[in-house]
Known about the structure:
Radius of gyration: 19 Å
Distance between the termini: 49 Å
Oligomer: single chain
CATH topology of the domain at 62-98 and 122-285: Rossmann fold
Structural class: alpha/beta
Number of helices: 10
Number of strands: 8
Amino acid sequence: MRSLPEALRAWGAAAIAGLALLGAGTVAAAEPAHDETIAERDQRLISEALAAMPPQRPGRPDLFVLGFAGDGNEDVFRNEVLYLEQLMDGRFQAGGRVLTLVNHFDSLDEDAPRPLATLGNLTRALAGIGEAMDPAEDLLLLFITTHGTEDHELVAELAPLVDELISPEQLAGAIAQSGVGNRAVVVSACYSGGFLPALRSDDALVITAARKDRTSFGCGAASHVTWFGQAWLVDGLNRHDDFIAAFNDARAAVARREQEEDFTASHPQIHVGTRIRPVLDAWRASFQAGPPVAYPWEPAPQPASEAAGDP
């Protein structure tokens, strides 16, 4: 069993003893020694991150990024979201408009704290980004990586602080409530194709790591990156500046790997809304992608960098 790190011990024995869920699917509201609950800490961190984002630039499409690492029992989901932050700022010129919600004990480290990945925090972060975006010209990339259930629920867990299952309707509701218009939503989880019906929109690109009745692969305590994370996030987006082209490469790469290892095909899915493609094209035309960004947790095949963006 994983021992609690110093970051969690710092909240004090009284905080852990006093943990109590505020109802199903909420962050436990313990009273740490410094009189700030974890829920209050997360609200503050989200507000600070939103306030630190550079303002939207009129007349130029800006990319806003929100990462969600749901299951804190394995490092792999944290790894992918922290890499997402590096990749979007370093290669995709996000310019600091990146916010990450991460279920991992590292998120409790006072030197580098991060909000936990809960439905409430996701809703709050989406609402703040929705207020900051220009709905006509800006773009949100929402990247979710976690375990998924056969009932099409996303796992958000960091015992004893977080224990949630997020449904397609809850995720779609949080997006709709935020007012975010143009968006690319990537759900990397088993059975994640079950989220497609709720997330489809003319203003959305939706990508899932698996069909609604299939598992995806590459999670586990010993894993550093999921198969789809490797194929789309690491290889695809270091080869292309185009989310759709990266998906096409990722789908083929995952299929090859599944065939080589005799695994049942996961069949990654994609939906491209009628209004989102020109928004994606305008955003891609507004910047020059930077050099590939190395994945820091294990050696990964380095794709060839594009000469001047994708056609």
